[in-house]
Amino acid sequence: MTVLDALTKMQADAVEQLRAGDHNAFLVGFLTTSVKLELSNLVAADLDLHTYAQAVVDVLTQHAPIEQCLIGIDPIGLPRIGAAVGFDPELALKHDTLLGHPNTALFTVDQVAHGALHAEDVPEALRAAGFLDEAAGQVAVGLARVVESEHLRRKAAAAKALRVVAGLDEHWNVAELGEVAAAFACLPAVTGATLTATAARFAGSVSADHGRIGPHQIERSFTVDAQLEIRLDIGYVEHPSADHVARLEELVHALAVGLERIEQNIRLAAEADTDALTGVGNRRRAAKSLTQARQRADATGEPMSVLLCDLDHFKQVNDRHGHDVGDQVLAAFAGLLRSSVRAHDTVIRWGGEEFLLILPSCDRRGAAALAERLLAACPTTCAPVLPPDHHQTTSIGIAEYPLVARTPEALVSAADDALYRAKREGRNRHCVAG
For residue range 321-361, what is the model confidence (pLDDT) as tens digits? Predict the structure, then answer.
């Protein structure tokens, strides 16, 4: 057995003896010294302030006969920190209510921090020897270094925030928004931050928060490329200084510039993937969307379906009424498709008067229900741009992945076969592959 193992065993034995009611002064002194040594070692670990606080209560409950313990720390210029074992953590953040309690020891480090250490069911031998006061005194000894490190860590957070913003790309979503919120929440004197992004591609708003919004709150918002709205709510320990506000404005500006670059790239990519006449996707977008839908289906085990729609006798529209009317019919039908699908579905002009719908997380029954709605709505939707005697209908082929095909190409081919079966059976109907 090594010396360290022997000391660990002695410490465990001392804990059990004190729990059993042994008031041996040597045991009390040994255990107090051992806990103070463990607490001093925490300072050398270079922990952030919150982790340090949690480590303090872990030491007390693991190396002393104490089941419930909490610590609250009020560092100057930083958010209040609390940690607990056996208590609601919220109580640690309200440690002021424990002042004067017999099982509470206070500590103060001038111009650095003050706080309280509280425990329940401390053995009488430890209470009589001032164990909590000794532990609180040891916390105070190392607190200046821990708080100084926290200030330095937070000063570096501005640079980190800039790096996170610079690292965003066209695929950013909630996870990346959370990284940005965390970076803002670690700025000097900040208690917490909430970022909210609103855009059509999110089908509304997504939000991420880190920390707690403090009593002194600042809100900043901006719109990017008329497509994306960003709101930042950030809280401070106290009314933010001019330096703090200036740093915040710098980072908000950097975020706006970074997102503007990304939104422009998204818009340019969307324009390259969009059919100019109808405003829906083109075959370039179809390839991407089919690949993404297949990957999602493989990952989740859910099916996906495609619908291939073809406007019946469309050549007659162009021949009898002109291509301008034909273009209006195409645009009207594309509008019907867009308004009939979910936010994460994709509408594609496949070619001429054919349109492809890509439906993730949708089986052939759901696809058939959608097809029925489209069949019913098509004549009414196209009627305003056609002469009264022209009744425009559509035919639809449906295929489900992976039931009838194992690749996107084979899936569309199966839907095409089903479409032409619908044509042969009299048009204005849908058929399902397989």
Answer: 999 999 999 999 999 999 999 988 999 999 999 999 999 99
pTM across the whole model: 0.53
Q: Which of 238, 272, 306 is the last residue of a domain?
A: 272
Whose tokens are 């570096």? That residue is: 156
Q: Please check whether residues 63 and 164 belong to one and the same domain.
A: no
Do both 7 and 138 map to the same domain?
yes
In the chain, how many domains are there?
A: 3
Placement of tokens 């409950």 in the chain:
61
Segments of the chain scoring below 70 in pLDDT:
1-24, 203
Which pair of tokens denotes residue 337? 């498709």
Q: How far is CA 167 from CA 21, 177, 196, 338, in A?
A: 59, 12, 18, 33
278 within some domain: no
Query: Are both 99 and 125 inside the same structural domain?
Result: yes
Task: State yes or no: cis peptide before 402, omega within 30 of 0.
Answer: yes
User: To the nearest 10°, the Cα dihedral for 287, 291, 293, 298?
Assistant: 160
